[in-house]
Amino acid sequence: MGYLDEPQRWLSFLDDEDTTWLFDLTFLESGWSCTFGTTCKGTEPDDNGARGCCAHGAHLVDTEERNLIAEAAARLDAQVWQNRDLVVTDDDLFDTVDGDMVTRTVDDACIFLNDRTFAGGHGCALHIGALQAEERPLDWKPAVCWQVPFRLEEYQDGSGTRTVAVRAWRRSDWGDGGADFGWWCTEDLPQPVPGGMTWERHLDELRELVGDGPTDHLQALLKQRAQQAVETPVELS
After folding, report:
1. When comparing pLDDT for 7 and 212, which is higher?
2. Is residue 41's pLDDT more than 70?
């Protein structure tokens, strides 16, 4: 059954600052994790997973993020980055699309994407470099690259009441371009293996998105749910 076909389950709680948090349990308690290089089919039609969701330049939040990416790129050598020799200055890393800063594309893919022929590894050179440095890939990559498919939305009503929702990205979240995707990874969510729920595998991403307080509370509630699910009822005589 596809993610969009089943009833959607949510968990909600109120924090000490009167913010209501909504978490998409259908997604967080699934077995989703990035399958780039394995079962990923890629967002572009007939791509066969070669580019995953890296077929376009990554949109950058601001100049600070641009500088972060440039600093991370400077730590990469040609052993882990296929396009290293194409970069002489920081400006060679970036482009502008519709007024937005993005990472440059090379051969119809992000400049940081190593193809399947590259001996240093297929995939994001920033991701590979971070792992080799024993650091978190999310600290090296553009925010959009580690946030997706986690989507954070914030709402405020007329009185200032704040609601924050964390859910899975859908095709429609990409605008008109989403309808043209050949495949999107949250449409069919796999069942989790023990210890392999999405929230368990991606706690770092959740913390970066919403902070320690909401994440700690969410983690405690989800652990409690998991424990209740495995407990055997005691029959009283």
Report:
1. 212
2. yes
C-alpha to C-alpha distance for 23 and 166, rounded to whole angstroms: 5
CA dist 112 and 82 (Å) reads: 8
The CA-based angle 192-194-196, given to 5 degrees, is 55
Proportion of the chain above pLDDT 90, given as a percent: 81
Spatial contact of 203 and 219, defined as CB atoms under 8 Å apart: yes
Which pLDDT score, from 0 to 100, does residue 229 have?
72
pLDDT at 1: 45
Find all residues with CB under 8 Å of 117, minimum gap 6, and list them.
none
| Domain boundaries along the sequence of the chain | 10-33+148-230, 63-147
Answer for the pair 151, 167: CB distance below 8 angstroms, yes or no: yes
